[in-house]
Every structure is written in C-alpha cells, then in structure tokens.
Amino acid sequence: MEILHICIRKENGHYWFYKMDEEKIPLQVLKNQSPESVFEKETHTCIDSATGPLWRATYITSDEKQKENNTFSSNILFTFHHAITDGYTSVNICNNFLKVLNDVIEENVQKLYYFGQLNDGHESEELFIQRAKYLKNNLEYCSEIRTMESKFNNAKLLLTEYFPAPKGAGKRTKFIHGELNKEMTTNLIKVFKSKGISFHAGFCSVFNWVLMDILTENGLPDKEIELPTTHAFNLRKYWKKSSSAQLGSHVLVISLLNKTDKNVGENFWEYAKEFDKELKNAIESMQAIDWISVKSLRYISSEPKCDESLNLQENVPLPPIPPSYLPFLPPKSYYYASNMGVTSSILKGERDHVSIKFISGGASIPSMSSNMIIFFQTFQGKVNLLHGLFCILSNGRLCQLMRRKIYSEITIYK
C-alpha cells in the first residue's frame, strides 16, 4: 500500500510526498494495558512526517480468553497522519486490515491487497475555483457569506466563562469513550426518521439542548442565545462517484448558528427540524466551500457595488500552521461534531476467524483549539461515542457533565 511507505518533505517552500528512504512497519506490542489510556497517549504523540511513515500501529494483547470457543480478545490501534486519510477513509483501511488478518489466520494470504488510492483533491480544487468565480459575479451573495461568517465568528461563547481552565492546564485533550446499546440506537433512528430529520441533526439538537441546560443551571441570564456549532463534512459527496476508496484528507467544516432558548426541551422537535433544515441547506448550497472560496477574493476598492471591486487571486497561499509553543486562538464554536454515519456498510466486522467487538476513532490537532469535539458512528446497530475535551480551555468536569446529561436526555426515547 503506497501511502504506508511515504513521508512529507519541504522543497522550494512547498511540501511534497516522498517515498521513504527505507520502508518500515512501526508496530509496538503491549500487554494487558487499557486501550483508552493507550489511545490518549497516542493522540499526544506526534508523527515524524519528515522521516515517515505517516502511520503507526499498537497491538495490545490480553490474557482474556473465552474457553468455550477458544477465542482470544485483543485490541489494535491505528494512528494516521491527517495528510493521508481522514475519519471516513480510515474505516476503509480498518476493513481491509481485518480482511488481511483473517486471511493470515486462514493461511490464504493474497499477493496484493488494495486499500485505496491517494487522491490529491483536484475535484475539490475545481469546485473552489468555480465557487470563487460565482461569488465574484454575485456580489450580493458574496456579501451575505461575509456577513454570515462574521456573525458566526463574533458569537459569544460562554463555556469558558462558566467552566474556566484550571491554572497551569497544558495543551492536552481528555477523551471519554461511550456507547449506546442496540435498543436505544434503534429507537433513536426510528424516532428521528419518523420526524423527518437526519440522525446527525437529531443527535446534535440533543447536544444543544444539553448545553443550554448546563448554561442555565450555571446562571445564564439570557432567555435566548445564538449557539454556534461546527460539523465535519465529507467533500467526496460533491465528487463524481468512484468505486475505490479515495484516500487523503478531504473534509471541511459546516458552521451553524442556531437561536436556542431556555425552553428548547419543551419545543424540541420544532427546534430539531429547524436545525435539520439549516444543515441540509448548508450542504446543498456548498456553504463550507463558499466560506473558503470567499477568502480568495480581495477588495481593491471601497465600492463593493462594482464588479471590479473584487479580483480573483490565481494563487491563494495556505495560512501558516502556528508553532506548538504559540498560545491557542480561542474557539469559535461550542463543539465540533464528526459523524461517520453507519460504518457497518463499509466495515465488515464479522469474518470467519476475526470479528470486531468495539470500534472508536478520534483526532488530535496540536494547532487547533476547541471546547469539545464529539465523534460518533453507528456500528453493528450501536452508536459509538467519543467526547474529546480540550482541557486547556475548559474544566475537566464539563465533559463528564455533558456525557451524563446526554445519556439522561436520550433515554426518553427508550
């Protein structure tokens, strides 16, 4: 698999993928250790991208054994550099790894396994250019985009006010793993579908409800606030369909600003339907792409009415990545939600000799700050949850409080 043997090097001011000088498999084997603690350690251990490879694996053995069928349980953790894969394609890689492992046990190893191809995102680039040209010729819409982004970026966040970071908090993320059982997952899917809303919209509406409850309980005087949240979006949905996994990092963020009042629980379905409507509109209107494309336009006149007031830059430099020692910029949303969807359609968890009991995934970006990141997916009829709390910005008890209240709220559908 080509992407498992590459590194990243800088040449003439640009970063390029290079084949490693010497191929190696970065595998460490541990015994009887907590998968959660190993997971957290991995997320705080950087990858040496200049040397490579851009991935590593940790195998955690266990003495646990089911005597009745001679079955052993163990854990394996994959760590990938975000340059070669994202959450959506990581599932594909896990599926292919499971196939390889099953074939090894079966002693039926193939000469070649195809994990997918690294895509440079040229289709996304074409979309950015198209949307930038559209914005240039539609100044009224361009102005609306700028206003929306400004309003979102200037919305007041109250979590750090009510849950300040402890003194001396380092740049670390606390992860809390969880799962909803099959009965609760089935009921959630059924009730959201009956109300005509997506699972993501319904679930995030519950998060917003919980956030509002927490703020109210901690003395929020306002009857209504505008609640900014961000949501991962798979750009491949805009591409032409391909039969193979398109590896690489091809994710953008959809930003939503929802008016949320203290009685959101009493009017929950109306709120959830409005959230769903705004999310779908953002996807259909390519909001995530437009918010990036508008940055490739620059004013050269104080008269925004004229077409000549905006020029399209041919080459837009990427913003520099701040060094790890610089202070974090304050977050602009209450949480970042990443929903992998129903991964059972991609990940075949039951094979002849191996099967998956539990799967969880997350991300760690040293240069990024966020109050909370929520990863969730539906696998084998159960919702797997991972809450990531950036402790430098919030008190550790917030994540525990969020988790307890979320589980409490969704039990109403049981």
Description:
This protein is of the alpha/beta class. It folds into two domains: 2-84, 2-Layer Sandwich (Chloramphenicol Acetyltransferase); 122-413, Chloramphenicol Acetyltransferase (2-Layer Sandwich), CATH 3.30.559. The chain is built from ten helices and 17 strands. The strands form six sheets. A six-stranded mixed beta sheet has the order 9-17-16-15-10-12, sandwiched between helices. A hairpin with a 2-residue loop joins strand 16 and strand 17. Residues 299-328 and 389-396 have low confidence and may be disordered.
What's this entry about, in short?
The protein is an alpha/beta fold and 414 residues long. 32% of the residues lie in helices and 24% in strands. It folds into two domains: 2-84, Chloramphenicol acetyltransferase-like domain (Chloramphenicol Acetyltransferase, 2-Layer Sandwich), CATH 3.30.559.10; 122-413, 2-Layer Sandwich (Chloramphenicol Acetyltransferase), CATH 3.30.559.
The quaternary structure here is single chain
Count of helical stretches = 10
Q: What is the 3D form?
A: globular
Uncertain runs are 299-328, 389-396
Instruction: Round the mean pLDDT to the nearest integer and report it.
Output: 81
Ends apart, CA distance between termini: 44 Å
* Class inferred from helices and paired strands: alpha/beta
Q: What percentage of amino acids are in beta strands? A: 15-25%
Q: How many domains make up the coordinates?
A: 2
Instruction: Write the CATH architecture name of the largest domain.
Output: 2-Layer Sandwich
Main-sheet strand order equals: 9-17-16-15-10-12
Q: Give the number of DSSP strands.
A: 17
Rg from C-alpha positions? 23 Å
Secondary-structure element pattern, one letter each: EEEHEEEEHEHHHEHHEEEHHEEEEEH
**Helix amount, in percent?**
25-40%
Protein name: Condensation domain-containing protein
